[in-house]
Amino acid sequence: MTTRTHKLSVISVLIFSSVFGGNVAADSTPPQNSGWVGYQSVFDGAMDDPNVMMYHSDKAYQAKDYNEALRWALAAARYEHPAAITNAKVLIQSNLGTVANREAVIEFLRYYAEPHSGAPADQFAQIYLADFYRGDTCVWTSDKKTGSCPGGESSKGPMAGLDLTQSYYFYTSAAEQGNERAQYATGMMDILALGTTRNVPKGISLLRPLAERGNVPVSYLLGLIYQRGDWMLQDKEEASKFFEIAAKSNHPGALLELAANAESGVVGNFGADTSARHGYASRQYLSVLDGVLANDEQRARAAYRLGLLYSQAPSMVDVDKAAKFMADAARFGEKTANESSVLALLWLGNKVEKVNLATAVSHYEAALSVVKKLPLNVQQRQGQVWELLANAYGRGQDGNFDRDQRLYAKYMNEKRIVQEKVFVPINSPYEYQGYSAFVM
Question: pTM (2 decimals)?
Answer without folding.
Answer: 0.82
